[in-house]
Amino acid sequence: MSRTFKKILIIYNPKSTGDGKKNAKQLYNDLRESSCRADIQLVQTTHAGHAEEIAQEYADTTDLTLLVSSSGDGGYHELINGVIASANEQLVTAVLPSGNANDHHRAVGSKNIVTSIVAGDFRRIDVIKISSKIGGRDWSRYAHSYIGLGLTPAVGKQLTKTDLNFFNEKILLLKYLFRYTHVTIRHNEVRRRLSSLVFSNISQMSKIIKIAKASTVDDGKFEISAIIYRSKLRVLLALIKSTTFGLEESGSFSDYSFETIRRTLVQLDGEVYTIDKKSDVHIESVAGALQMLE
Questions:
Q1: Are residues 153 and 255 in the same domain?
Q2: Within a domain: residue 83?
Q3: Confidence (pLDDT) at 248
Q4: How far apart are the C-alpha atoms of 247 and 237, rounded to whole Å?
Q5: From CA 157, how far away is CA 206, in angstroms rounded?
Q6: Is the pLDDT at 35 greater than 80, yes or no?
């Protein structure tokens, strides 16, 4: 799909420890020097959740608008939730990789963002929706890449903070293995203890953990990868194996439901939430819910 963007917002966090501000300003200058004739704006965020609020401010725009998140996966997570909540077909998203892991960009991002913007090329991709309860209230959220419970997403978040090599990645895996325990859920009336449970539509998490070989962002499904609860040594071996061969996949699904036993941490694209105990959780693929720059 190709159309001409009328407005472009390049959103960045000025307090980020990454290259978000630098990359945002470079993209702004590159676009001004290109043949792009859109109204281009640099927009600073001032607080957590601000990117989501900015997207919702454009819920009623009739101009084709590109919202670029100069950030890592977490900043882009905010943006896409605001865009999806707005339900406006005139909003298109893009991520300018400025974090450590940049998992989503590695999987589906634009190879040359200026060329794609000038050409006006974008497509629809799937997102993964989670619905449950937090603080006794109904709660739902969208993930552009993965939803994870247990050890793997917890370890993965720590790995994104470090410049990795073959040796220190193994040391970090061992270090965080002993900080986290299993997660217990009830699925189809059966109680299950898992060291890790990941729902994903990309193939790699935190740069090195391979989570789903068959993943794609436009088939209306997500992949499930799990590690059954076992001894610390066996879990460690499974994590090390995941950096080379990937986690064991349970198949592709369009939806999946379970119940929490106790308050449960869940990570969406690296952002952490705590779901209430004894709460129903529903995961579903929302096909074509997000328009993204090619």
A1: yes
A2: yes
A3: 55
A4: 11
A5: 7
A6: yes
